[in-house]
Design goal:
Elements: E1 6-8, E2 13-16, E3 22-24, H1 25-47, H2 52-78, H3 80-85, H4 100-118, H5 122-146, E4 161-163, E5 172-173, E6 180-182, H6 190-212, H7 220-236, H8 246-254, H9 258-280
Parallel strand pairs: 1-4
Antiparallel strand pairs: 2-3, 5-6
């Protein structure tokens, strides 16, 4: 056992009113993603002379797109057979199960509907959404850390976390020999890897949009956002455990899990958008 490992025994509940009801850290951090996103976007809207009413409407669209997309993404990307047999459980969000790739699709659909209604530039809006989405990703992954979930494989690195409160994997076994390795071994804190990567991406995008936003073609920031965020996600997935049993077959056949497979279209979309903008995009200044 790595004596330099970090024992992670944080209670996921901020406070409990009963055995099954209360406020979890995940919920608080999820709310922080929208709160800080709203504050930052308010600055963008004020600069363009747009009303607070339009911002409130946008926030509602994004909230619905995020929750609906994330839930449907989890249900149909990771366990479609089960949820097709039990469709009412799709509505049981409180039982857990949200997928970031589904949230991304849901947000894009919501934004498309929003700009159609308000006759705004989709690319201008999505550039600025990229900034707050990166910050939102930081808060969501910190929520996963507080829940002791979605972490990585065992590691000997000194910053490995022993997730004491996660009972979903009581023992670890060698994937090649089947040998039982132990309980609560130090693992890669992949939630923290992603959270810090997204926070760094937020600061970079925020600086770029403040310094060069009026000079860049609309859509350029979004293109680079897609490439940076989903390439990061693709690489970190190599350190993670599989979230579903069927992913074991995917890895043996394609050497990728579902998270990586779903990241590829977003990376290609980012590259394709930058290529298209280079030829057809309009310069703002």
């Amino acid at each position: 056992m790595n004596i330099l490992s970090i024992v992670w025994d944080v209670n996921p509940w901020l406070f409990k009113l009963s055995d099954s009801f209360g406020i979890r850290w995940y919920g608080v951090l999820f709310a922080c993603a929208f709160l800080f996103g709203y504050i930052i976007f308010n600055r963008f809207f004020k600069k363009e002379g747009l009303s607070t009413e339009k911002l409130d409407q946008l926030t509602l669209y994004i909230a619905l797109g995020t929750v609906i997309g994330a839930r449907l993404g989890h249900c149909f990307f990771y366990d479609a057979a089960y949820y097709l047999k039990n469709p009412l459980e799709i509505l049981q969000i409180w039982r857990g199960g949200l997928a970031s790739h589904g949230a991304s699709i849901g947000i894009l659909v919501a934004l498309y509907l929003y700009v159609r209604k308000n006759k705004m530039s989709f690319l201008w809006l999505i550039d600025r959404i990229s900034v707050v989405t990166a910050l939102g990703g930081f808060f969501i992954r910190m929520g996963n850390l507080m829940n002791s979930e979605i972490y990585g494989r065992p590691t000997d690195l000194p910053w490995g976390f022993r997730f004491v409160r996660d009972n979903s994997r009581i023992t670890f076994s060698d994937p090649n020999t089947g040998e039982i390795l132990g309980k609560h071994l130090p693992c890669h804190p992949t939630q923290l890897y992603e959270a810090l990567s997204y926070l760094l991406l937020f600061f970079i995008l925020f600086w770029v949009i403040r310094k060069y936003g009026e000079k860049l073609k609309d859509g350029v920031i979004f293109g680079w956002f897609l490439i940076a965020l989903f390439t990061t996600r693709f690489l970190i997935e190599y350190l993670k455990f599989e979230q579903s049993d069927f992913e074991l077959n995917m890895i043996s056949q394609w050497h990728m899990n579902m998270g990586q497979l779903l990241s590829l279209p977003f990376i290609m979309l980012g590259i394709g958008l930058l290529v298209w903008l280079r030829k057809y995009g309009k310069t703002n200044a």
